[in-house]
Amino acid sequence: MRASKFWARFGFLLWGIRMMDVMFFLAFPAVGIFLTIPDFSGPNLKRASLFLVYYVLFWTQVFIYNDLQDALSITEEPRLRNHHALKHPELVGRKAVFVICLALTILSLIGFFLVTQKIFWLGLVLWALTWLYSYHPQSFKRHSWRAELAHLIWGELCFLQGWLVFSNWNPKSVLLGIFFGLILSSGNLANGVEHFEQDLKGGYCTTAIKFGRAATFNLSRYVFFLSSGYLILISLVMDLPRWFGICGLVLALFWISNYFLLDTQKGISRIKSYRASYRILYGALILVMMIILGLQKL
After folding, report:
1. Residue 18 belongs to domain with CATH number
2. Quick count: other Cβ atoms within 10 Å of Cβ 261?
3. For residues 140 and 182, which has the higher predicted lDDT (pLDDT)?
4. Cis peptide before 137 (omega within 30 of 0)
5. Predicted confidence (pLDDT) at residue 228 exceeds the cutoff of 80
6. What is the count of structural domains for the chain?
7. Does the pLDDT of residue 82 top 80, yes or no?
């Protein structure tokens, strides 16, 4: 019996980790790496791979810590979610989950330091911000503007971490990072619409709760459209591949058609499929970006 319970605990890797969310965050630094990597030599690939491993560990602990804190205000959340760190407390309890979270934090930050100190310091800032975002009961996610600002900064810093693996700061890297921050902020607005009822029970004051689901849903679309226009603009005025502007144009056309073809109330009622559709779109677009950048390095 003890042996079976021991092996059952390894199921935490399947139900306790929000791996799809982690992989979504992986896309931002990956673009930074593909933009700056000199070539695909063995040492460069090893350096990039090590960073990405530590980056995955870092964001794994971010979501685990977020689960720990959310469960304090929304007690039924572990049961409602398919993936949650406390979904099976009879197998892996709160203390064990916290130890896992702490171990991943230390390991990932040490890894960042081994890659380069610049990434380590950005990692510390990210860790502090994610801690403030989730910490119960004064988490940033309880306040509309703080939550969106946190996601804007996350997108910026995540992209910059990937950029700094092979290069240094410059205006182009900072301005391009804003694009990814706008994407995250828009997605968080849509997330607030999807989890409106849960957040309301948890005593949160998200943008959706403060201004209503309809206004927040449309604001999400406006910011997504703004980000596409921003990508077109910086591709024209900065030293970026011109096809970045084409990517921005594709995104702009998508959001224009989305606005006119998808009624607000219908979008709210289909919020899960709506969020899945834009995640697929941005995932595919970022994959195309990396393929083209990779082919140019060959």
Report:
1. 1.10.600
2. 9
3. 182
4. yes
5. yes
6. 1
7. no
Identity (one letter) of the amino acid at 149? L
* 183-225 tens-digit pLDDT: 999 999 999 999 888 888 777 888 999 999 999 999 999 999 9
Q: Which domain holds residue 260?
A: 2-297
Residue with tokens 């990814």: 180
Q: Which of 259, 282, 269, 257 lies closest to 187 in space, CA to CA?
A: 282
Q: Which residue shows structure tokens 């289909």?
A: 270
What DSSP assignment string belongs to the chain?
Answer: -HHHHHHHGGGHHHHS--HHHHHHHHHHHHHHHHHH-----HHHHHHHHHHHHHHHHHHHHHHHHHHHHHHHH-TTHHHHSSS-TTS-TTTS-HHHHHHHHHHHHHHHHHHHHHH-HHHHHHHHHHHHHHHHHH-SSS-GGGBHHHHHHHHHHHHHHHHHHHHTTTS---HHHHHHHHHHHHHHHHHHHHHHHHTHHHHHHTT-B-HHHHH-HHHHHHHHHHHHHHHHHHHHHHHHHSSS-THHHHHHHHHHHHHHHHHHHS-HHHHHHTHHHHHHHHHHHHHHHHHHHHHHHHHHH-
Q: For the range 210-213, what are the long-range contacts, defined as Cβ-Cβ under 8 Å and sequence gap of 24 or more?
A: 210/144, 211/144, 213/268
